[in-house]
Amino acid sequence: MKMKKTIAQILAAVVQGASMSFGNYAVLAEDNITVTVNGNQLSFDQPPIIKDGRTLVPLRAIFEALGAEVTWLGEEQAIAAQSGDTTIVMQIGNNQFGKMTSSDNGVTYDLDVPPEIINGRTLVPARAVAEALDCSVDWDGNTQTVTIISEKWIDGDNSGTNAYIHNGVVYYSFIYQPYIYAYDGGATKTYAAGGAPLGIVVSGNKIYYINRDNQTVCAIHIATGERETLFARLSEIRDFSVCGDKMAIIGFDGDTQCVYRLDLTSGNAEKIYTRPEKEGLFVEKESNFALWKQYLFAVESFSPLLDGESECKILMIDTETGASQEVCSIRGTVTSTDFRSSSYSHRYNGAMAKFDNDNAYFGLQFSSSEDSSNRNNTKSFTEYLKINLANGAMTEITESEFESAADLAVKIPGEWTYDSDKTGVYRTNTQSGITETLLSGENYYYITNDTQWVVVLQAKTTGGTPTSTKGYQSAEIMVLDADGNNLTTINSYSGSLGASSPTGEIDTGSLAPEACAVCGGSGMVTCSYCRGTGRGQTITILGMPTEQGCTYCGSTGERLCIGCGGSGQK
Q1: Which among 398, 515, 522, 475 has a CA at the least distance from the CA of 181?
Q2: Residue 269, exposed/middle/buried by CB under 10 A (0-12, 13-18, 19+)?
Q3: Burial profile 419-430: b = 16 or more Cβ within 10 angstroms, e = fewer
Q4: Under CATH, to which class is 7-150 assigned?
Q5: Is residue 161 within 8 Å of 171, Cβ to Cβ?
Q6: Buried b vs exposed e over 173-201: b needs ≥16 C-beta within 10 Å?
Q7: Which of 50, 21, 134, 119 is nearest to 88 (CA)?
Q8: Whole-number Å distance between alpha carbons of 302 and 281
């Protein structure tokens, strides 16, 4: 496409007054520097160096490890990275860089050491880059180690059939089936999960999930398929979230709800929260937790089934220290003459949460006493709160303030949101509110999406819903592109509701090595995203459309074969 402005012109407008230095750089000795991102050590073809007391690292490797899409603009000697609604632009020799989010028109930041090219790779200061993407950065001079930790918690969908997209690969499972599948656009790899998986999450080089059959949290190494049990202390596990090298696990120890913090490096687990029990009060068996940065917010609610006082409060818990503080407490009354004829005041129903760098925003929904004719149809009202992340201070806000608040915790930012109901799968434009139908039919269910794919389940049962033990009568996992085109079935199964679900493991120990049929033994396949062209989508950089290279293959047009993990052997 033809650009109206060059990236150099954009930088000149945004990065005003920045000094440029393109002099001859001294030859720098390689330093034995280790860089870890979210607990995973990175490897580089151009090692990091230390210059003027600052550690410079290959930009592309760092950004892509943090989930950003990277574009090199050779003519302008500039590099751009996009993560969610954040776009960062750096230019070789420029001691300032530009950053733009959905909430601003672009700001500039100073660099102690400007980016430079060494052996064909762009090296940039590690701290500046990581902090631009809201990560924590630590330097250990004794071990020569840079540690970068993403501040965002990620979790999966705990529905029976669930999926997670990571670096252009769809990881998914079928309900009650003991396998996790990985699809890269061409080939499918199967992992033995040891039980029916829930809440699939991919972080670094591992797949994390809940084994619903034995109520444990497990991990599978993507390259080797090796499986390990990470946590097995609760009788029922409801949810978990991963943030770098730590995990928060939510579940029940008998009838008591607990939260554990798990160190993924050491394997040490510590209980950081226990929901108190109160006699005669019904404690809702829901997670009711939200995680952001190092904080965990717990909504405690106690709703009596008969006459009595209803209570709702929010706790702010530091997952690093285990320290907690109460930031909100709301009480009301519940009056009941029978189970279906009641009047309520401040009876907690549910919560919505948003987060930015400085604050947490909550919308707490309560039952009202406006309609006492039917307990299940009681009208509701919502109170909106803002909680300061630094000190826990709470203020009441309006609905419009809540709706207009930025939400950096949104998992899948973009122009469209996707969903399904009994009529099919559809998408809604986040700006205009216009809804478009992608698939029609009551048997289609939306699972997840990224900017490349929409993952859909088509399932059929005799009764309209899966049984508690047998799953679907037939099911297909499909993908579409973001516009709802090119519907492709990537996996399916069929059976009888009267037959047991498949069980057991995949035994590969007795199989002799043979050439991978997918890649023909080369270990590489044509990138399905760019179809071998090396070109990616067009992104907006500081307000201007810019063609980018394919981030899934590094603009090479080839990717490691997922059928063999790059080994060339089946």
Answers
A1: 475
A2: middle
A3: ebeeebbbbeee
A4: alpha beta
A5: no
A6: bbbbbbbbbbbbbbbbbebbbbbbbbbbb
A7: 134
A8: 6
Sign of CA dihedral 508, 511, 513, 516: negative
DSSP conformation letters of 379-446: -EEEEEEEEETTT--EEEE-HHHHHHS--TT-SS-SSEEEEEETTEEEEEETTT--EEEEEESTTEEE
313/82 Cα distance (integer angstroms)? 38
- Tokens 């829901």 belong to which residue? 286
For domain 512-570, the question of CATH label 2.10.230 is answered with yes
Every domain range in the chain assigned CATH 2.10.230 = 512-570
pLDDT tens sequence across 9-32: 445 544 455 555 544 444 344 458
For the chain, give me the number of helices (H) and strands (E)? 4, 45
Interacting residues of 539 by C-beta distance below 8 A, sequence separation 6+: 69, 71, 80, 82, 87, 545, 546, 548
Return the ∠ at Cα 131 (arms to 323 and 95), rounded to 5°: 155
Q: Where exactly does CATH 3.30.457.10 map onto the chain?
A: 7-150
Residue-wise pLDDT for 518-563, tens only, equals: 677 787 777 765 667 777 656 555 555 666 666 556 677 777 665 5
Residue 346's alpha-carbon distances to 278, 338, 402, 472, in angstroms, are: 18, 19, 20, 40
